[in-house]
Amino acid sequence: MQYPPTELVLNDKGQVYHLGLSPENISTKIILVGDQDRVDLVASFFDQVEHSSQHREFVCKTGMYNGKRITALSTGIGTDNIDITINELDALVNIDLKNRADKSTLTSLDLIRIGTCGILHPEIPVHSYILSSHAFGLDNVAHFYKTFNSAEELAIQNAIIRQVPLPSGVIPYLVEASEELQSKLKSDKTHLGITVTSSGFYGPQGRQLRLENKTSSLNEALSNFSFEGHRIVNFEMESSALFALGKALGHNCSTICLGIANRPNKAFSDGYKSHMLELIQYVLDRI
To answer: pTM here?
Structure first.
């Protein structure tokens, strides 16, 4: 397939348009972070940095960690930025940018999101590691693509829809994380469960300031959900699109978050940088 300039948009250096990257700038193992400053935290563990760049909110550093080539890339906040990130990362490894055509051999990336999240269960303490088994998307990004769900994914999705009252007009979807990456990241330090990806930070996550929301009972309903051993454990803002688009394109995707807010207990971290550094090293050692 030939991709015209309006579909595969490149900058004047022939790089993908938003990320500002060339194929040689990235590894096949990529740590995704929302916060631009977190890229430096990841890169602080590298033995050496071979590439460093920034375009808009997309900061990228690639280097070596214990003999492994790793890329750290910031995505910014939200599933809309994940749409850009996943499509352009896939283009870097699976499209010949010069000839604007698919490569004959496809490459699968390992995409691991390290983020922060809100915890939905009172017994899980702040600064816990939350590993996503699935992402339940309250955004709409995946609805614009031809993605496919397993029977298990659909069963869990439908069970959540039955048990959790969502605002009218919200069409949710559920996608499983990479089992391979789950097995690498899972340990007695992690709390495994379904992650809810919301389309915003305030009303969509049950917060209310001056503007009244329609989700005052949402968090309680999510935390009470149970189906065949599955439960919902946390809120964040990126994983559903990451899992849906990444999986459809043949990439391995996973999310592990540091819980910085316990929503039922109304407890928020009083400082989590040292805990985030520990989580980053935990992930680097396991991938």
So the answer is: 0.96
